[in-house]
Amino acid sequence: MLVLSSPSGAGKTTISRHLMELDTQLTMSISVTTRHKRPGEKNGKDYYFVDPTEFNLMINRRELLEHAKVFGNYYGTPAIAVENALKNGRDVIFDIDWQGAQQIAERAREDLVSVFILPPSTAELDRRLHRRAQDPDEVVAARMARAPDEMSHYAEYDFIIINHDIDESIRKVQAILASERIRRRRLVGLTEFVKRLQEGY
Prior knowledge:
This protein has a single domain, classed as 3-Layer(aba) Sandwich (Rossmann fold). It is built from eight helices and nine strands. Helix 1 packs across helix 7 (166-181). The longest helix has 16 residues, at 166-181. It is globular and about 70 Å long. By secondary structure, it is α/β, with parallel strands linked by helices.
């Protein structure tokens, strides 16, 4: 499980989407949310959009791997899709905040690689949020106000990327993913393979 977190506007969603295009072994974890759709978003592709009652039912049925309230809306990760992808040998990428990352770490730290994306400056973060033009000014202001607290959690992550350039940041996450895939503990069948080599096969 590859978790990407960042303050809003720092680039985690853009990086996630590019990684999905470049790596056929990756599956995107699609979150469920109570927030309204933004222009161009599609249910089941960007998010699963549900009402607060259904979200609470999912919590009560223990269907969510993690969940959190962010900017007045609830977000969560349906567990069954993640479990199925992992069983089928696929890596799962998560575009979630620090609260969700903490919850996943509590449940499955050995299977988790976490990356925190930082903006190059506060001014650049503000510029990116306004350029995105998806939220009204008061929402952008709330996101900027929340950014210092979000960034304070950087030390909880395995890797830190300062997103000066999106292409360079994508390459860095690809390098992290490639190295984590060949960690000894993640190589299924390695013991048997080495044993065969030792026996001359």
